[in-house]
Amino acid sequence: MLQWLKHYRRDQLPGDVSAGLVVAMMMIPQGMAYALVAGLSPVVGIYASILPPIVYALFGSSMTQSVGPMAIISLMTAAVIGPLAAPGSALAGVLAAQLALVSGGVLLLCGLLRMGFLANFFSRPVMSGFTVGSALVIAYDQIHTLLGAELPHAHLPSAALGVGSLLLLVLARQYLAGVLKRCGLSPVAADVCAKLAPMLVVLGGIGLMAFTGLAEMGVRTTGAVPAGLPHLNLASSSAHWRALLQPGLLIGFIVFLMSMSAAQSLALKRNEKLVSNHELIGLGAANVASALSGGFPVTGSLSRSAVNFAAGANTPLASLITAMLLACALIAPTGWLALLPLPTLAATIIVAVLGMLELGILRTAWRYDRGDALAWGATCLGVLVMGVEAGVVIGVALSMGTLIWRASRPHIAVLGRIAGSEHFRNIERYPAETQPELLALRIDANLFFGNVEAVTGRIECELATHQSARQLLLVMSAVSSIDTTALMALAELNQSLKRRGIGLHLAEVKGPVMDRLRNSTLLPQLNGKLFLSTANAWDQLHNVKDVA
To answer: 386 and 416 share a domain?
Structure first.
């Protein structure tokens, strides 16, 4: 807790100050936009950007992560509270805070129980498919706000403002950094300035609403934004706790995954080490803080954290400065925020989420592992067709299903000796020498109840193919554990081979596996020998016809 503050250096302050200022300018339009995605009043997005990063700075382990509202978490929040309360209503705000409290409580509990390994339950292709599907859903849901009405009945002034804002943002994303570099700015400064384009477009939209007749033409704005800091929020709806529990668990899971993804990418650049259990506690505390300050579920944002890093952030002090500046923005007169046009805000949302459509993982998975590519597609389609919560469940099921499917079908190689050496390789890949009386098999997986039937079936298949073999050698160099079911299956195989006059031998058994085998009856009853190496077994079993 606050280890970074104990070792803070004066030379780190300028970078933290500049990063805090830049991210604060990003957070005003972004926080308000993501609150709208969640079906809440825009000011709630700023509330969720003040206390959570302060609390995360106390407990989190990432030095540059920016914690606050995020598009996908906002979409999941809307999917949960939408059927229970009208968008923008007081009840919706209460339920959103209640959902943040549930998610935060779950994350805190997981952190205290040291369950950081949960980050491994989503494969990267599945996570990418979930992200892409969610981004498409968010973008589609904003089209009616962008155009001022449902298709095909667009409101012309709103559509002109929204589409114009969208074009400006797209052009800024594509070309502004390059133009600024050619004008003499450093690459880092140019990239940071390009990231501030949404704030400039928002200010331009506010200016148009203030000095033109767009408001009289029917262009909708965010409306009055209450001034002042958020109050302590202890409101809850006892009738909805049960309905929020399961979605809160899912949102907490996704909060952790999203945040770890963002934090790990930055930690690699800074040669820092993240502590997953500290991240769970930090994120849990941040969500509890969001609930108590009238916010909604928050997480670490990859794009905002990247801007924080690029703008010079060295420590969590940058996030503290961002939070203080946002608090000052609420203390100051907020009348100018009331003029923010919703079509412009919708344009910022669409451009932000479409930046998440990274298809590189899909291309890599398609070339490397079609199963992962299909999991990507199924997760993305699940989000689009069945909803975000269903997409999460599909993603977890596919990740776990893929793991179980692969573990249940381990690779087993028939080994032969490379001529003139003591190296043994798969005969399907190398020109290796074999012995007709000896069948050597290397099992490339741990043996457990889920794969032992497939292993014994493959062994019997190979014995049927190599009918002249009177000795079976199992090379166990890749086996790190054998459970009780697998032990019993090996004992049954041993007895079956003995009845057929075939010896069963083991080679290169790892120490932890040997320790457990010594407590079993397999070794005393083994129909063969134990060998330190495959080479020793090969030499001793050469031309052995009968079972030892």
So the answer is: no
- Which of 404, 424, 440 terminates a domain? The answer is 404
Domain boundary among 369, 404, 439: 404
| Nearest-10 Cα torsion for 379, 380, 386, 390 | 40
Please indicate, yes or no, if residue 1 is contained in any of the structural domains.
Answer: no
4-24: pLDDT as tens digits: 888 889 889 988 998 899 899
Q: How far is CA 41 from CA 48, 96, 338, 372, in A?
A: 12, 11, 12, 39
What CA–CA distance (Å, rounded) separates 162 from 165? 5
Q: Same structural domain for residues 286 and 364? A: yes
Pair 252, 308 in one domain: yes
User: 94: Cβ–Cβ under 8 A, 6 or more apart, which residues?
Assistant: 85, 235, 236, 237
pLDDT in tens, 164-205: 999 999 999 899 989 999 998 888 888 888 888 888 898 999
pTM over 0.85: no
Q: How far apart are CA 297 and CA 97, in angstroms?
A: 7
Q: Provide the CATH number for the domain around residue 491.
A: 3.30.750.24
* Same domain assignment for residues 342 and 485: no
- For residues 305 and 361, membership in a common domain is answered with yes
- List, edge to edge, every strand of the sheet that includes 438-443: 424-426, 412-417, 438-443, 471-475, 503-507, 530-531
Residues 158 and 229 in one domain: yes
C-alpha separations of 81 from 92, 106, 235, 243 in Å: 6, 18, 15, 9
Q: Is 276 exposed, middle or buried (0-12, 13-18, 19+ CB in 10 A)?
A: buried
Segment 387-441, tens digit of pLDDT: 887 887 888 788 788 888 888 889 999 999 999 888 999 999 999 999 999 999 9
Q: Please indicate, yes or no, whether residues 164 and 227 belong to a single structural domain of this protein.
A: yes
Mean pLDDT computed over every residue of the chain: 89
Can you count the helices (H) and strands (E) in the chain?
24, 8
CB 327 within 8 A of CB 189: no
Asked if residue 220 belongs to a domain, the reply is yes
Q: Would residue 2 count as lying in a domain? A: no
Residues 473, 373 share a domain: no
Question: Residue 162 is part of which domain span?
Answer: 9-404
How confident is the model over 284-341, as pLDDT tens digits?
999 999 999 999 999 998 778 888 888 888 999 999 999 999 999 999 888 888 888 9
Mind listing the pLDDT tens digit for each residue in 131-143? Answer: 888 889 988 988 9
With b for 16 or more beta-carbon neighbours within 10 A and e for fewer, the 460-497 pattern comes to eebbeebeebbbbbbbbeebeebeeebbebbeebbeeb
4 located within any domain: no
CB count within 10 Å of CB 364 equals 15
State the DSSP code for 190.
H
What does the CA dihedral 304, 306, 311, 314 come to, rounded to 10 degrees?
110
**The two three-digit tokens of residue 460, written as one number:** 């019997």
Q: How many domains does the chain have?
A: 2
What DSSP string runs through 130-147? HHHHHHHHHHHHTHHHHH
Task: Find out whether 31 and 70 touch, Cβ atoms under 8 Å.
Answer: no
Residue 150 has pLDDT above 80, yes or no: no
DSSP 315: S
